[in-house]
Specification:
CATH architecture: 3-Layer(aba) Sandwich
CATH topology: Rossmann fold
Order of helices and strands: EHEEHEEHEHHEHEEE
Strand order of the largest sheet: 5-4-6-7-3-8-9-10
Distance between the termini: 35 Å
Largest sheet: 8 strands, mixed
CATH superfamily: P-loop containing nucleotide triphosphate hydrolases
Shape: globular
Number of strands: 10
Strand content: 25-35%
Number of domains: 1
């Protein structure tokens, strides 16, 4: 059976993942201090727009990724982070109503959550994990591509490993000082189609290719 690959919008990640990201993949993006998770999310969603995916962006008031308001369904009200996970859970009800009985014309979905750490602080680890697990199961059923961002400095190793278990792919943005210069890398720890433990490459994100 052939696997449909879609670009993540990040050429370095596409290369590490074997040419692209399989449709239906859930990615956990772990970020270190000094990396560029917001621009990573921008490029992920921008590529979804380019491919005419239905795009959702889940965020907390004040954490904003450019001006996607006219193009992407943005979930999250200022000063009301408590609603985010409930809305994430319920958004699929809306999606099914829009496309029920229209399998031949069914839109593909791409979503991004920024930041999962904020949601954990709001709800607590256990509730966030339970809801994230439910959403992950629905995402697989709907063949959706999801990207959830989490700060690795805000969680212990056990919490990270528990979250990693939910996802098809685990990607990390990390930094390394070399001869006094800060180098940035994308590292893939887990992939849905490739059998390697870890693989990394340098990256450099530019904003000038994000055009609406």
């Amino acid at each position: 059976m052939s696997i449909e690959l879609a670009s993540s919008g990040i050429k370095e990640l596409d290369k590490l993942m074997g040419g692209g990201v399989p449709r239906g993949t859930q990615i956990l993006l772990e970020v270190e201090t000094g990396t560029s998770p917001l621009l990573f999310v921008e490029k992920w969603l921008h590529e979804g727009l380019r491919q005419q995916d239905v795009c959702f962006f889940y965020t907390k008031g004040g954490e904003y990724v450019r001006d996607f308001s006219k193009h992407i369904i943005t979930i999250g009200e200022p000063n009301n982070a408590n609603r985010i996970m409930d809305v994430m859970h319920g958004i699929w009800v809306w999606y099914r109503e829009q496309y029920q009985g229209k399998e031949s014309k069914k839109a593909l979905v791409r979503s991004a959550t920024y930041s999962l750490s904020t949601i954990v602080m709001t709800f607590g680890f256990e509730r966030t994990y339970k809801l994230a697990k439910e959403i992950s199961q629905v995402s697989k059923t709907e063949n959706a591509m999801t990207l959830d961002v989490i700060g690795i400095g805000m969680h212990n190793s056990m919490e990270l490993k528990t979250f990693e278990f939910l996802y098809d792919a685990v990607v990390r943005l990390e930094t390394q000082e070399i001869n006094g210069e800060l180098a940035r890398y994308i590292r893939v720890f887990k992939s849905p189609i490739l059998d390697y433990v870890t693989k990394k490459t340098p990256y450099s994100f530019e904003k000038n290719d994000l055009v609406f």
